[in-house]
Design a protein that fits this description.
Length: 171
């Protein structure tokens, strides 16, 4: 049946359109997730750089304090002040890093997509239409029965009649 094959091909084309739309949605979602991952990596690199800088600063202060002779009170006091500032800065960095450490990536699907697709019974309506004959072809109608019926009702003031009824024979 040519019409069946044509309808089947149309279903396949329609399905491919749906697949293309879903593929596009998937690519867009993965792109968003990849962008988020890159942003998280940048935060991590920034945090690593801050920690390295703070560690190096603390190491320099520690080395400076160890190299100071006991009789230089002014230098010792300045080194102690600088070390306190660096420890305070390192503590604030650690508190900031604790906030970033709890980051979790999750995926929540769009419920309207699932609801919409689940609500469909089929992709399209399938109909079986009769093909209309060409206007150039002659169609012969045959009268199989003729009968007269009185269709008047009591309230009619003039005559009523039905001139013809056509029907198709069932095979």
């Amino acid at each position: 049946m040519d019409s069946y094959d044509k309808a089947y091909a149309e279903i396949k084309v329609f399905r491919q359109k749906i697949n293309d739309i879903l593929d596009k949605l998937e690519r867009s979602t993965i792109y968003s997730m990849d962008t988020l991952l890159q942003t998280m990596k940048q935060y991590l690199q920034s945090d690593t750089d801050k920690c390295s800088k703070a560690t190096n600063g603390l190491k320099k202060i520690s080395d400076a304090i160890n190299n100071i002779k006991n009789d230089q009170n002014d230098v010792t006091f300045i080194a102690h002040q600088r070390a306190s500032e660096m420890v305070s800065h390192a503590d604030s960095i650690l508190k900031e890093l604790t906030v970033h450490r709890s980051t979790v990536v999750t995926f929540k699907s769009n419920p309207s997509i699932d609801e919409t697709l689940s609500g469909f019974r089929c992709l399209r309506d399938i109909k079986c239409d009769e093909k209309q004959p060409d206007k150039n072809k002659t169609t012969i109608l045959e009268c199989s029965n003729k009968s007269l019926h009185d269709i008047r009702i009591a309230s009619d003031r003039s005559s009523c009649d039905i001139r013809g009824i056509c029907g198709q024979k069932s095979l």
